[in-house]
């Protein structure tokens, strides 16, 4: 098995999580999607999680999963004979970076429709964290690779926001999962305005086919819609026509 990227400290020492195990479930999650507070050690290229404090923990972050998480569903039923889940892999580590401009807009990118995982989906820039790579460095590298945006380290601040248990395909009805990540979301607050940042962007056409900056009203409107429900009555009336 490759070097484990996500480990759980549930007893004496950290143990790697196998691909088919639900990380949220092992941390004591019930049937709800969460979030649940989790103690984390954000080491170079590795994440250690626990449901209780431990000496190496550097942050206490919420962890969450979608209500249709396939690993949660698999934990509640016997594994079908035709299930083809990897047996020699653990859970991978990913990072997503929410870049906020000085005038409080946030960057989203749309993945190209030719990508194998989550094509044509609006997401923050991000991706896989390399082995022995600091999590912030991985986030900034992915930001640069996808958008061409490089942030000088003396012109931004950052803070970890939370963790997301991610699978692809995202629903068991779409097939057995082939990818399993814990994604760390980072908020990176730039000292530059949206206009200044936009002037530096050069999207990678192999990964990104569109981008947009969300203002607070649009971001709140997106967050107000959960699991595909309609909340038109709650949305401001002056949103761009494409948002509702």
Structure, described:
This protein has one domain: Nucleoside Triphosphate Pyrophosphohydrolase, CATH 3.90.79. It contains 5 helices and 12 strands. The protein has a 9-stranded mixed β-sheet with strand order 2-1-4-3-5-10-11-6-9. A 3-stranded antiparallel β-sheet has the order 8-7-12. It has 244 residues and is of the alpha+beta class. A hairpin with a 2-residue loop joins strand 3 and strand 4. Its EC number is 3.6.1.62. One of its GO terms (molecular function) is metal ion binding. Acts as a decapping enzyme capable of hydrolyzing monomethylated capped RNAs (in vitro). Hydrolyzes monomethylated capped RNA after alpha and beta phosphates to form N(7)-methyl-GDP. Shows low activity towards unmethylated capped RNA.
